Amino acid sequence: MIVQLKISLGLAIAFACTSFITGGNKLNESTLKVKPLEMVKNSLTPEEIFNKKHPKRELRSAWITTFTNLDWPSSKGLTSLEQKKEFLTIVNDFQKNSINAVIGQIRASSDAFYKSKLSPWSEWLSGQQGQAPDGNFDPLQFMVDECHKRNMEFHAWFNPFRAVSHVKFSSISEDHISRKKPEWFFKYGNTLYYNPGIPEVRKYICDIVKEVVKNYDIDGVHFDDYFYPYTIKGEKIPDDKQFKLYSRGCETKENWRRDNINLLIQEVAQVIKREKRHVKFGISPLAIWRNHKQDPTGSFTNSGQSSYDNLYCDTKLWIEESWVDYMAPQLYWSTSNEFANYNHLINWWTKNEYNRHLYVGHAIYKLNTKNRHSFGKEELVKQVNISRQNGKVNGNIYFRAKAFVNNHQNFQKTIGESIYKYPSLVPAMTWIDSIAPSKPVKLKAKINEGKVHLSWKAPKYNSCNDSAAYYVVYRFEENETITTKFSSKILSIQKNNQLIDTTASADKNYKYAVTSVDRLHNESEKFAFTKIQ
Fold first, then answer.
1. Beta strands in 410-509 (DSSP E)
2. Fewer CB atoms near the end CB (10 Å): N or C, the chain?
3. At 484, which CATH number?
């Protein structure tokens, strides 16, 4: 960790990314020549061209950081009512901007934003670790409920290994695990970390995750980039004793550390799927696996720290082996950066075929013109379009909520008129579930006071896994062919089975189609149909 109290759980890595890259030389001129993205070929059909520009399926997400009150709650000690109001402001803003998934931080320093038998309440709620919120308030339950009301996924974001963020200034409850099991931890800088080389530690982390998956209706488990700590010059991780005890035949400590993390990733994935198969598991790593100068298969970057060598995370292996459901590398640099270029990194992450989803993390806090590494809103649009044209990226995640809500440079208007002009469905993860529900039934339409009123019934299903979780309503003009392929024809994505079309023109005849979508976002092949004349 570079600046413990300034960086939010690793997803604020870009605050410190200049520390990672300033140690090296600039990439030479030949290296900096980014291979231009292949232009859309004339052979593409109009349908293919449109869907590259406005994909019907795309994760659109944002991180809500609770660590040090960066996003929510805005300060310690707020009442539960005040905390609820602040969260609703955030998710309502997300909803207006086509966000379809939320990644909320629920465990920042071996603490909890939820009712737990294993972890104390977070100090970022009341100001005192272990002190419960007033009124029996359960922040995680509230977050899940409010996101689901808006048809947004909720992914529970854990920092797996940070135990005490600052040994001098953090609030630590009497029943904190670091007091019960001090032998599980090591101090590095001013922070206390779990030692992943100890088998009991990995089991404990799995138990932490299992408790949340079992007790809450979350859609995903999300880890950030903090595993072993970012390197601090002159300091060594004190794990010689554990290496001798648990080396498992690993010849070097570096390989042993990587193997510790590899084991944890596999163990966590297994725990999640055993408890609830539909819950996704994703990780958002530092985007630089290794630099090309360290490894011929690495990216054309010149970063002072990398996932593989400093955090002991073989992130490339995790997605190649399909241990995770998605990877969301933090590509927090611009397309003109001399040390870690967005183009180089997107090309590196997408040069291979994976059987899992790849999302891109974007540094929208850099839209703040007060940031010395700020860039214009056109850069953000450019990055998203590059990902779409690449064809191997399944969505985008924005760091972080406060920057989103602050709407730097009025970027929300820009994305609403361009990249997010139309709504989008979360991409289906067919390796978890590929069976779509049946179409809705008994679709009816009537005109009342100049507005079109639609209603329908849920389809029958054989098991709850095949039930309709929500619906997509499409609208077409009289002479248009009905197809559910285009995002531009989506009138609404919603849980309710009725809709009032307030935007219909009185002088036009319309046709409507409604499909069913299950929890894992498989859409019915057939649709219910009606028309207004």
1. 441-448, 451-457, 470-477, 490-494, 498-501
2. C
3. 2.60.40.10
Beta strands in 328-439 (DSSP E): 357-362, 395-398
Task: Give the domain-ending residue among 417, 450, 467.
Answer: 417
Contact 362, 328 (CB under 8 A): no
448: helix, coil or strand? Answer: strand
CA distances 83 to 76, 95, 134, Å, are 10, 18, 11
Give me 158's structure tokens. 């854990």
Residue 466 clears pLDDT 50, i.e. is over it = yes
Q: What's the CA gap between 449 and 483, in Å, rounded? A: 29
Instruction: Give the end of a domain, one of 417, 451, 481.
Output: 417
Backbone angles phi, psi at 496, to 5 degrees: -70, 155
- The answer on 487 and 401 residing in a single domain is no
R_g (Cα) of the chain, nearest Å = 24
Q: Give residue 499's domain range.
A: 441-532
Residue 217 DSSP SS3: coil
pLDDT at 4: 34
Q: Answer whether 104's CB lies under 8 Å from 144's CB.
A: no
Strand boundaries in 147-242, DSSP class E: 153-158, 162-164, 185-188, 191-194, 220-223
Q: What is the largest CA-CA distance in the chain?
A: 80
Task: Please count the residues of the chain.
Answer: 533
Q: State the CB neighbour count (10 A cutoff) for residue 25.
A: 9
Half-sphere exposure (Cβ direction) of 295: Cα atoms closer than 13 Å: 15
Which whole number is the average pLDDT over 42-59? 92
- Six token digits for residue 125: 């709620």
Q: How far apart are CA 444 and CA 184, in angstroms?
A: 62
Considering the entire predicted model, what is its pTM? 0.92
For the stretch 119-135, pLDDT in tens is 999 999 999 999 999 99
Q: Which of 22, 16, 71, 4 is nearest to 330 (CA)?
A: 16
